[in-house]
Structure formats: structure tokens, C-alpha cells
Amino acid sequence: MGKRKADDTPVPHSGIKKHKKRPTGKVDRCSAISRNQFKTIDSLFEEVEAILRSPSISALPNPAIPLLKKIPDLFGKKTQRPRLDVKQGGRTGKVEEGDRIAMYSLFVTPRRLVPSRSFSYSSQWDSYASEDTEYAPPAPEPSVQGDLRIIKIIDCGEEAMYCQFNKRGTLLAVGLISGVIKVYMVSEGSCVHMLSDSESVDASLPVTSLRFYPQSSSSTGDLLLATYASGLVKFWHLSTQTCLQTISEDRQILTGTFNPSGTCFLTAGSSNDIHVYDTETKERINTCRPSQSLTIMNGHRSRIFTITFHPQIENCFISGSWDNTVQFWDVNSQHSLRKIFGPHICGDALKFHPTTNQLLTGSWRKHQSLQIWDPDSGEVIQEIPDDFRGHSRIYSCHWLDSEHILAAGSEAHMCRVIDRTTLMSTGCLLNLAGGVYSTDVTSVGPSGPLIAVTSRSNVYLLQRPNK
């Protein structure tokens, strides 16, 4: 007999034998995310990145926010969800808590939503545990291996975007995602200054770079240059916690720095221009930019994330960008003097060696992420391989000394010290809750040379053993 309808009337077979689907087995939640949702995420990022490259920066948030609102729940409940205010067409609009990770990631750097080690660990446990399981085992705690030890862990209370030691190594300034700057006493790990005003609070956008004035004396106190994703440039006097002067640019500012003598400072960001200012008058004295001809690449064609001055030549500096070039400039010229093709710079990852002038670059990509270059020939001298524990897309790197390099980033969520001779990691900070967006190094201080590493809301102060 065939199948029956509801009134028990026989229904003839169609003649085609139907097979039941075979069970596919259990798929954990991380696998399901990667198979079913990453295509959606990639398409959203392509749309948002197209908006980011739009020349109309002022209109940027309006078309991007609807796209960002599609993203937050794609990675489940484990994703942190802070809050952010953004400007929409002249008025302040509230973005839902789940949007903030996507918001600052896209508008400041291309930091995609990659599940951290702790998220993957708990997700994998959840997929195999029964519904009656009340508690899952905790994610691994951050730890160090090799020639590193943790001196202090400072909880900043919110996402730390940038950190910078002062010249004497006694203070550490940390720029936060809300636009607030906290200054900590290194020896005690206590917050001694909090820098914010009505402009930075109202904008509520991240601090993108910090630089202490190189010639500050103890009589005048420390002076701090801060740049913000809102387009603000501020000079802060630490001891009085006052803003001495504010410059506003019609773009997102992603980096700023002084020349070695402190007579001028530079800013760069979401446009192709690098502005040069006189430190004393705060007046713009030059703008370094590419020529209008698209057949000549004598400047950047995309966002600029870092600027570094030559250690011996006062007026010469280099810059790194999304456009896969490092450009060489003079502060008095309009166009770049020459370039190196290759590095994909997305953070403070472009450093001159203090004595040999060799160039260290960190790229936010899967391959060739850490390289050493001859700045004169533009050729790669050395490729630094990945650590065996996992690959890192580099946001920040430094020369520690002539034989050691510091590098950190996302994906593997770790910071490592690398021996240049053996190309092996001699020390690692592991199991961090999120990517490392900023690091800094001081060779002096109350407890000797120190390394500062930011990850989520924490700053880790590390020390290498004296040898």
C-alpha cells in the first residue's frame, strides 16, 4: 500500500525510492561558525571596507552602521559587548553594545572579529557538554614561557588601544577605547593621572597614538601628544592634568609623532596626507602627500598607520600604510623620495635599528608578517618565521637590542621575543584574551628594562632576565 492522505485514501507510490539522509555526526559550534557564517561576515567586511575607502570621511558612519548591526551575534554570547557613541549626520547616536567591537575594529584598524583562544576553548567545551552541565572549565590564564616574567598586570577597566613609556621609564600612558588616557606609576602599577576633557568625552572614540615630548625636563613636567580617531590632536600636561592645546582635523587620525629634537610633530590617518606642525606655534608648516597622477606612487594611496623618524637624520622619516608600501620622506618636501613595496602595515610596526639603521616591519597578514630590510637597497635581509605555537598577524614590533626582536599581534594572541641568530622565540606571553594592539619598550626604569603589552582591558608589564 502507498502512503495515505488524511482521509485514509491510498496514495500510489511515485516509483522513486527515497533514501534517508545519513547522519553527519556532531559538529562543534566553532566549525558551524566557520562554515555557515564566515562567508556572510566576509561580504559585510567587503562592503564596510569599501565605505572606509570612500573620500567622504565625514559621511562615513551613516552607511556603515546598518552593516555593522548585522555582525554582533555571529560569534555567540561569549563575545564582549561594550558601548560606543558615534556621530551620525551632526547628531550623536547610540550604537548597540554588540556593535562596538566591530565599530572600533573597522574604523581604526582592520581588526576582524576572530574568536580568541579563550572563546574557542569555551565554545568547544559547550558543544560537547550536555545541557545539564552547569559549569564549563575556565579558559587558560595568561602565562609566560622562556626568558620572560610578568612583573605586574594593570587592569584599565576598558579596552586598551595604545601604550607609551615616558623618557625616564617611570610612567606608562595608556590610551583607551573611550578616548580617556590613564597614566600609571610603573613601580606601583597605580593610576596617577586621568586625562580627558569635554571634547574627547563627547566624541567617545579611541585614542590611536601617544608620544611623550622628547625634550621634557623635570621642571616643566611630562608633555604628552595624543591623537584620536575623532580627528583631535591634544597636548596634555601630566602634572596638572590639563590640555594645553587642541588641533582638530577633518579626518580620523591614526598616528602622530615628534621628530628627535621635538621641534616639529607629524600626524597621519584616514587620508593620504601627512601634516607637519611646528611644535612651538602648533601651526601647520607642510603637508606631505602623493601627486595627483595615479601613474606615479610618490606617496600613500590608503590609510597611514605609523610614522617613524630616522634616528640620526633629523628631517627624514618613513611611513607605513594599508597600500603595501613604506614611503621615505623629508619634512620639507611635498612628495616621498622613494619607497619599498611589500609590508602591509596596520599598527605601530615600523622601526629603524638605532645603530645599523636596518628596518623592521610587521605586517597584518598570514605570510611574511615579520621582515628585516636594507633601507638603502629596499631588499629583504631576513624573514622571521612564525612561532611553532601559532601564527600572528603583527600589529606592533620593536628592536629590543641588536640580537632580539619583540613582535605581537592577533590570531595567536601572543607576544614573543625572538633571537635574530636562531630565529627562535626565547620568551612568550601566551593565552591572552584578545589581540595585542600595542607594545612599548623602555631600557631604563626603577626595576630595569621593561616591556608593556596591551590585550583587552589589561596591560602586562614584562621583564627579561639580566644576562
Can you give a write-up of this model?
The chain is mostly beta strands and 467 residues long. It is 12% helix and 38% strand. Strands 5-30-29-28-27 form a five-stranded antiparallel β-sheet, with no helix packed on it. α2 packs antiparallel against α3. Keywords: Repeat, WD repeat.
Identify the notable features of this structure and list them briefly.
467 residues, mainly beta, five-stranded antiparallel beta sheet, four-stranded antiparallel beta sheet, 6 helices, disordered N terminus, WD repeat, WD40_repeat_dom_sf, repeat
Question: How are the secondary structure elements laid out?
Answer:
Layout: E1 3-4, E2 10-11, H1 29-36, H2 38-52, H3 61-68, E3 84-88, E4 91-95, H4 100-108, H5 117-128, E5 143-146, E6 149-155, E7 160-165, E8 171-176, E9 181-185, E10 190-195, H6 198-203, E11 207-212, E12 223-228, E13 232-237, E14 242-248, E15 253-258, E16 264-269, E17 274-278, E18 284-288, E19 304-309, E20 316-321, E21 325-330, E22 338-341, E23 350-352, E24 359-362, E25 370-374, E26 379-383, E27 392-401, E28 404-411, E29 415-419, E30 425-430, E31 439-442, E32 450-455, E33 458-463
Antiparallel strand pairs: 1-2, 3-4, 5-30, 6-33, 7-8, 8-9, 9-10, 11-12, 12-13, 13-14, 15-16, 16-17, 17-18, 19-20, 20-21, 21-22, 23-24, 24-25, 25-26, 27-28, 28-29, 29-30, 31-32, 32-33
Q: Provide the helix percentage.
A: 10-25%
- Count of alpha and pi helical runs: 6
Report the C-alpha radius of gyration, rounded: 25 Å
The secondary-structure class comes to: mainly beta
Distance between the termini: 88 Å
How much of the polypeptide forms β-strand, as a percent range? Answer: 35-45%
Major β-sheet strand ordering: 5-30-29-28-27
Largest sheet report: 5 strands, antiparallel
Mean of all residue-level pLDDT scores:
80
- Give the overall shape, derived from the CA principal axes: globular
User: Which residues form runs of ≥5 with pLDDT under 50?
Assistant: 1-9, 11-19, 21-36, 55-64, 72-133
Number of strands: 33
Biased composition (Basic residues): 15-24
Region (Disordered): 1-27
Biased composition (Basic and acidic residues): 1-10
InterPro entries: WD40/YVTN_repeat-like_dom_sf, WD40_repeat_dom_sf, WD40_rpt
